[in-house]
Amino acid sequence: MSWISDKTEKFRQVPNPYLSLHITSKFLFGVGLGVLLAGCLPIWTGWIFVIVALVIAIPSARIILGR
After folding, report:
1. What value does the mean pLDDT of the chain take?
2. How far is CA 12 from the centre of its chain?
3. Which of 55, 57, 44, 50 is nearest to 32 (CA)?
4. Rounded CA gap, 5 and 61, in Å?
5. What pLDDT shows up at residue 49?
6. pLDDT tens for residues 14-37?
7. How many CB atoms neighbour CB 60 within 10 A?
8. 22 near 60, Cβ under 8 Å?
9. 45 within 8 A of 35, measured Cβ to Cβ
10. Cα–Cα distance for residue pair 11/3, rounded to 1 Å
11. What residues have CB less than 8 Å from 24, skipping those under 6 apart?
């Protein structure tokens, strides 16, 4: 199996709480990036969303990308 298929199979086996954290972190990262690009709110607000998203994504990323 290739590397991509291995990671896809691991992603399918992720428990539901980690999967919901993964989806939440992707959503928060998108909101933070949107705030940074739009510039309608103070710039630190976008960075807070991006940092929180990265912190939330750590557990699921360790499971998916771990060996």
Report:
1. 81
2. 16
3. 50
4. 16
5. 83
6. 788 888 888 888 888 888 888 887
7. 22
8. yes
9. yes
10. 12
11. 56
**Residue with tokens 């086996």, as numbered in its chain:** 13
**If DSSP codes are grouped into helix, strand and coil, which group holds residue 50?**
helix
| pTM exceeding the 0.90 threshold for the entire prediction | no
Tokens encoding 41? 């709110």
Q: 1 falls in which pLDDT band (50, 70, 90)?
A: low
Nearest to 66 by CA among 5, 2, 11, 23: 11
For the range 60-64, what are the long-range contacts, defined as Cβ-Cβ under 8 Å and sequence gap of 24 or more?
60/14, 60/18, 60/19, 60/21, 60/22, 60/25, 61/22, 63/10, 63/14, 63/18, 64/7, 64/10, 64/11, 64/14, 64/22
